[in-house]
Write a structure and sequence with these properties.
The protein has about 120 residues and is of the alpha+beta class. It has 2 domains: about 1-55, no CATH class; about 65-115, no CATH class. It has helices at about 40-50, 90-100, 100-115; strands at about 1-10, 15-20, 20-25, 30-35, 50-55, 65-70, 75-80, 85-90. The strands form 3 sheets. A 3-stranded antiparallel β-sheet has the order 4-1-5. A 3-stranded antiparallel β-sheet has the order 6-7-8, with helices on one face. A hairpin with a 2-residue loop joins strand 2 and strand 3 (about 20-25). The longest helix is centred in the last third of the chain and has 13 residues, at about 100-115.
Length: about 120
């Protein structure tokens, strides 16, 4: 998980997806959120365009934070540190995943998690 400091100076509340559901930062307030997945550059840019300052805090993962690792039987898991995010990927998908940028990896995990 990644922790962000949020300064929400927009006129509306902002919700951030976390393992426990959603964390909400009210309009005009500051707080920290512990997101389920790292925010993509596009998400941060959209928030900043809406007058929301986003600062990565403790727990921020580097570009290699998400990776596909073999777990047996020819299948792979996508992990972030010790946390398993997705399971049972074939080798071809795992190889393609490991070749992606950090933003592409975050988007891939978000898309698969919603499916």
């Amino acid at each position: 998980m990644t922790v962000y400091s949020i300064d929400n100076q927009s006129p509306v509340d902002k919700a951030f997806r976390s393992d426990a559901g959603y964390s909400i930062i009210a309009a005009g307030s500051k707080g920290e959120v512990d997101t389920a997945l790292p925010l993509t550059e596009e998400q941060v840019a959209a928030l900043e365009a809406d007058n929301v300052k986003v600062t990565a805090g403790r727990g921020k993962k580097g570009p290699d934070g998400l990776k596909a690792e073999h777990h047996g039987g020819g299948k792979f898991n996508i992990t972030e540190g010790e946390k398993v995010l997705l399971t049972d990927l074939p080798k071809a998908d795992a190889d393609a995943f490991n070749a992606m940028s950090a933003e592409e990896k975050a988007a891939f995990v978000a898309d698969r998690a919603q499916a």
